[in-house]
Amino acid sequence: MTTPRTSPLSGSPTLDEVARVAGVSRATASRAINGGQRVSARAQEAVDEAVRTLGYVPNPAARSLVTRRTDSIAVLVPEPDDRVFSDPFFAGTLRGVNRVLSERDIQLVLLLARPGADTARTLRYLTNRHVDGAIVTSHHREDRLAEHLAEIGLPCVFGGRPWTGGERVAYVDVDNAAGEREATELLIGSGRSRIGTIAGPHDMTAAADRLAGWRQAMSAAGLADDAVEHGDFTEASGETAARALLDRHPDLDALVVASDLMAAGALRVLTERGRSVPDDVAVVGFDDLGVAERTTPQLTTVRQPVVEMAERATRLLLERVDAMEGSHPMRVIIPPTLVQRAST
C-alpha cells in the first residue's frame, strides 16, 4: 500500500481516495465502510487501513442511503411534558436506554406525545423512518400504539405490556400483579385487615395488573376489597386519593399504593390527619427509584428495576433492527423485589 501525499490545502479525503489507496473499486470501498456486506476479509482490511491513514470520515447522508439506517432510536413517551421531566421513572428509563445506545454510537431521539393529541404527527414521523426503531413507554389504552407500529413495520419494543396488539410486538415488563400481591400479603401477615389501595390510571396495564394483585391477596385472605381510589401516578393525585379513601374508610389500618410518588402524597395526608405511620396505618409503595428513601418514614416498596428493564428493552430492539426483518415477538417478564423499610 502506498502512503498518499497530502497537503493542508487538499481538503477532506474522499471515498475515491480511500478506494485508490486500498486498491479496490469505489463500490467495494463503500460497502466496506458501510457494513462490510459482500466484501472479502482482505479488501475489508485494506479499506480499514486506508480510512485510518487518510482520516476519512464517512458522509452520514450517503451512508444512510447505502445502509438504510439512521443510527438513531426513538424513545416514545405519550405523556405531558411536565410529567416526563418530574417523574424518576422516566429518568431511569432514559438512562438505561442511552447507556446501551452509547455502546453502539447510536443517537437517542426523545418523542413526547400527549395522549391522543400528538399521536398522528408522531406516527407520521415514525412511518417516514426518521429512526431505525422505537421504544415505547407509559402507553395508554386509547393510544393503540402497538397496533399502529406493527402495521407500519417499524421495529419496536414496549416498556410494559400493551393493552392491545401485544401479540404482535415485543415488550419488557415487571410482574406487576405479583409485586402488589406480595406487598399486600406482607401487610396481611403483620395483622392488618382493613387495607385500602390507591391504584394507578384505569387506562394503563401496569395499574390494572397492580390492582389485580391487590385484589388477589385480599380475596385469598377473605378480606373486603372495596377500599379503592385511583390516581395518575403523581404525588398530587396520591394526596387526593388518600383523602377520599380516609373520608370513606376512616378505619383503614394499611394502604397499598401503586407508585412511590402517590405514596408520598398519601403520607402527607396521613400526617395532616394525625395518623401515625406505621403504628396507625402501614403504607407500601411501588417503584423504589429514590423517592421511597426520602419520605418520612422511609417507604416499604416494591422495586421494579427500571434501568435494567430499559437496557433489556434496548438490546432486544437493536437485535430486531440488526435482523432487518420481522421476528417473533418476545416477552420478557422481570420479577419484582419487596424492599422493607420503616413505613410497615
UniProtKB/TrEMBL annotation:
**InterPro entries the record matches:** HTH_LacI (IPR000843), LacI/GalR-like_sensor (IPR046335), Lambda_DNA-bd_dom_sf (IPR010982), Peripla_BP_I (IPR028082)
Q: Where does the HTH lacI-type domain lie?
A: 13-67
Q: Which UniProt keywords apply?
A: DNA-binding, Transcription, Transcription regulation
- Entry keyword annotation includes DNA-binding: yes
Respond yes or no to whether keyword Repeat is given for this record.
Answer: no
Q: Which Pfam families match?
A: LacI, Peripla_BP_3
One GO molecular-function annotation for this sequence?
transcription cis-regulatory region binding
Q: Which domain of life is it from?
A: Bacteria
What PANTHER family does the annotation carry?
Answer: HTH-TYPE TRANSCRIPTIONAL REGULATOR GALS (PTHR30146:SF109), LACI-RELATED TRANSCRIPTIONAL REPRESSOR (PTHR30146)
Q: What is the protein's name according to its record?
A: DNA-binding LacI/PurR family transcriptional regulator
Q: What is the lineage of its organism?
A: Bacteria, Bacillati, Actinomycetota, Actinomycetes, Propionibacteriales
